[in-house]
Amino acid sequence: MKLKITSILLLAVIASFSFSAFTLKEDVYKVDVTKSTVTWEGKKFAGSHKGTVALTSGNLNFNGKKLTQGGFVANMTTIKDGDNNGGLEKHLKSEDFFGVEKFPAANFVIKKVEGSGANVNVTGDLTIKSVTTSITFPATLVWNADKTVTATADKITVDRTKYGIQFKSKSVFANIGDNFIYDEFTLSVKLVAAK
Fold this sequence. Notes:
Elements: H1 2-21, E1 27-31, E2 37-44, E3 47-63, E4 66-81, H2 86-93, E5 105-114, E6 119-128, E7 131-143, E8 149-159, E9 181-194
Antiparallel strand pairs: 1-3, 1-9, 2-3, 2-9, 3-4, 4-5, 5-6, 6-7, 7-8, 8-9
């Protein structure tokens, strides 16, 4: 009986070792921040503004060609307005919006990827001003001839009020009239990554 139990335990250990030995290792692709871009667009009643923010770092993990996890960090001190309006950039960096002195970074972490091939749906945690909420958006993956991969999300919708950014929000200040800024802004992200 003792020999039988020992044999079963030994078999279980060998089986678990064999399984772990053949588990596929994920490939980590590092995001090239010089070739990657994040652009934003915010709208108000009387128009809109577009601009950019630079990335600090990022990575994409793949099991074969299936995206499994990853994310990126944005340097919020680099917010630029496409119209080169220095006053707007200063205001976006202030406490009314992103408070970059206290919160110099924002980040996104992939939690789930649905679909396979070039078109996937990504769900992850977006953290702005130390507040984290889950967002889901479609993304496209392209494997390039130089063995890099490009991940693109053309329109990620973000509700700024979920991160405590309430400046001129009509949903917060009901009597603001036409002098409001829409709660939602959009991000367009292109990540170019190499193994």
